Amino acid sequence: MDVQTLTYLIVGVTFALYIGIAIWSRAGSTKEFYVAGGGVPPVMNGMATAADWMSAASFISLAGIVSFTGYDGSVYLMGWTGGYVLLALCMAPYLRKFGKFTVPDFIGDRYYSQAARTVAVVCAIFICFTYIAGQMRGVGVVFSRFLEVDVETGVYIGMAVVFFYAVLGGMKGITYTQVAQYCVLIFAFMVPAIFISVMMTGHVLPQIGFGAELIDAAGNGTGVYLLDKLDGLSAELGFSQYTEGSKSMIDVFFITGALMFGTAGLPHVIVRFFTVPKVKDARVSAGWALVFIAIMYTTIPALAAFSRVNMIETINGPESTGVAYETAPEWIKNWEKTGLITWDDKNSDGNMYYAKGPESEMKIDRDIMVLATPEIANLPAWVIALVAAGGLAAALSTSAGLLLVISTSVSHDLLKKNLMPDISDKKELMFARIAAALGIVMAGYFGINPPGFVAAVVAIAFGLAASSLFPAIIMGIFSRTINKEGAIAGMVIGLAFTASYIIYFKFVNVADNNPDNWFLGISPEGIGMLGMVINFAVAFAVSKVTAAVPQNVVDMVEGIRFPKGAGEAHDH
Amino acid sequence: MSFESNEKAEGYWRENLRLVLSLLAVWAFVSFGCGILLVDVLNEIHFMGFKLGFWFAQQGSMYVFVALIFVYVAKANALDKKYDVHED
Predict the structure, then answer these.
(1) A24 lies in which domain range?
(2) ipTM
């Protein structure tokens, strides 16, 4: 069977599986899902959280980004895993003890204010919309390659699939579907990584192969370490050293921080820890989530290094003089159809040549690295098909989770609790659907007109979460003195500062988006960490000069600090 | 109030904060410290085929993160028992 048929087959089977699970688990468990206490075991919850978490951006783009930027890509690896430590230690157990359903609920109650709740809802919706915008591009890339259409058409197909999927029951049986999706995506990710690791270094574990010697075709050691080879190749072609990168230290520091604190402030992740039976489970569930995430995230940099060496050698040849286009492997021609690889024979010698700077004849989109890896390494057709299914699993599980939060926020937190308190259930549901549809349309728009790479778009959502929700939640738990005026001022100023910095450099004055113009050399991706510091500072200052926190709220804060007496989570 | 006295409640919270802060110190040290601020110094040291700073940034910090959460879970559960504020 050819790749095309196999792809249809494997993608079809996995889709049938998800829909089957959604229908099966819908029957008895609708209520259990919303009132959480029903008891999702911590390991399962961890797995579902991991699937929710690992988006198309992680699956498709991240290895590509690390592959093209080397050490600089570490910001995503550390940032997107380090946030779970904060979640487990500083947030999950207390929010579980608090025992309500959404993040705006906590902020509204802790700061005894409808206005605080509204600000939190607006932040949550804003963050989810930004985040989902990064997803569709990924889905589009997958479809465009395997249906052999351009990326735009791929995005349209992706929008249609996600829409049906979300409406069809993805919303309801979501946790168990995500467990299945995790299994598909991790299998799809690990198989090619292990294949390549064995081929290039003889080690089964990519994490070990990453630091090992390369072997030749006969399986004998060459005495050259993978990473040394890569540093050598990078230098030769005019790139900065793979293991050193090109971003300034302060920028790496701030981006990592923004991603870590942002992770701990993302509404669709936090909500996960409301769904376990006990405070104890909330703690360990974050641990399991990180185990499942780390399996993939420690493989990503290894895969990135393997495919970089592979790609450069395929295009430039062993002598680094270029390979004749005539003899180019199939994958280059396949990806040219999608427009994600282009070849421009500048010196008309009929050879392909890849390097940094004007003499480079190849343009290669980073987003294709994971999808193209099995083809580059000549792996069997079923592996290529499996990777497509994995990419789609990643995109679907994250989109479904986000759409759920968007529609709850809009219909429940914003409309029912704020704007129209006597709305009927039927109307509430209608608004939830409209919000989901709007989410998909927006995501599609940004998928077709991407303001950056997939992961970069997602990175913006983290900046916003770090500068608005994260400080408000942390102060709500660890301080008895921050009052509503302080919290609201902190959130508004933190968010406004971060958003305007990002919008200025990403949309208004794109030409100025370079280190010379950045404040202290901090890029828009990293500014959220500074926004967070501003939020904390403003909240402390304003709380000092305004009325004290009422006694009943102080009692509530003291009450969430120990586990005893945590009831079932309830929906208001 | 589930604590026998205010002193107990204060004691529990103090011990809890000490636990969380010491684990967060390790968290910051391996990522912001070894992976970013000290990366150039550590890169002088080779560890298998890795430069050590690069290894912390792309591998080591993540292993430590996982370990930290499980250490926290064990210690926090023990602390709850000590002050008798665990769930039934």
Answers:
(1) 3-31+40-338+348-559
(2) 0.93
